[in-house]
Amino acid sequence: PRPLCHPQLEGLCSFLQLPTCLEHLLVRFCSWLLALTPDLSYTSAAILAEQLFLRRVLSLTQPPSRHLMAALASFCSKYSQPFCRVLVAAVLREPGEGTEQTKLVCELVEECLEPDCVRLVLGQVLEVPLSEKLLPVVQAALGRQVRGSPLSPREVLPPELFDLLVLTLCRQAPAFATSLSYAKLVTAVLTMYQSQVS
Questions:
Q1: CA atoms within 13 A on the CB side of 18
Q2: What is residue 179's three-state secondary structure?
Q3: Quick one: which of 98, 45, 96 has its CA closest to 74?
Q4: How far apart are CA 128 and CA 117, in angstroms?
Q5: Residue 108 contacts residue 76 (beta carbons within 8 Å)
């Protein structure tokens, strides 16, 4: 069959009520998506990431259910790049505390994302002004660099990303003069990369 164009795919999602379907059905739908051949295009996966998860994640006021986490992990396992570009970027742009959203991104970084997507998330964080909300995400990404994960061994930050990290921490230091989270983050960077920091 011919692939659906973007408005058709969005219309199909709306017709199937995917943005608001029960979360246990979302898990089943994601399992079905993973079995599709050929794989979805990047754009189709990005549209589905937005339709399936964006509203749910941005409206979280308590930890996500096990069904939602299972669906997120399932989708991330195959389509993590478009997922990060759509969902993580939206969380980073969202004003306010966003405590549950930040915890969710940290959990995905620590447990689900492949190293290239962990670096993508770190790059996305460093493209926006740092805030207390985002410091745990940076910490989680750096933690993956040190210990690896069940998915992969330890990875080293590319030099350009490391330079951007150090530059961002230095430039924004005055805004975090009394922040314990910022102090912990700087200590972690100095510990992990002591041979590269002068």
A1: 23
A2: coil
A3: 45
A4: 17
A5: yes
Two tokens, residue 79:
């389509």
Q: Do residues 118 and 126 touch, judged by C-beta distance below 8 A?
A: no
Task: Give residue 70's pLDDT.
Answer: 95
- What count of residues does the chain have? 198
Tell me the pLDDT tens digit for each residue of 103-140.
Answer: 999 999 999 888 889 999 999 999 988 899 899 999 99
Q: Which residue has the tokens 């002591």?
A: 194
Please give the radius of gyration of the chain, using alpha carbons only, rounded to the nearest integer: 18
Torsion over CA of 113, 147, 92 and 28, rounded to 10 degrees?
A: 30
**What residues does each domain of the chain span?**
1-92, 114-197
Which of 44, 67, 64, 48 is closest to 56 using CA atoms? 64
Global model pTM greater than 0.85:
no
- What is the second-level CATH architecture of the domain 1-92? Alpha Horseshoe (1.25)
Quote the distance between the C-alpha of residue 92 and its chain's center: 9
Residue of 35, 127, 30, 135 lying closest to 83 (CA atoms): 30
The answer to whether the beta carbons of residues 161 and 119 sit under 8 Å apart is yes
For residues 148 and 101, the answer to whether their CB atoms sit within 8 Å is no
First to last CA, the chain: 58
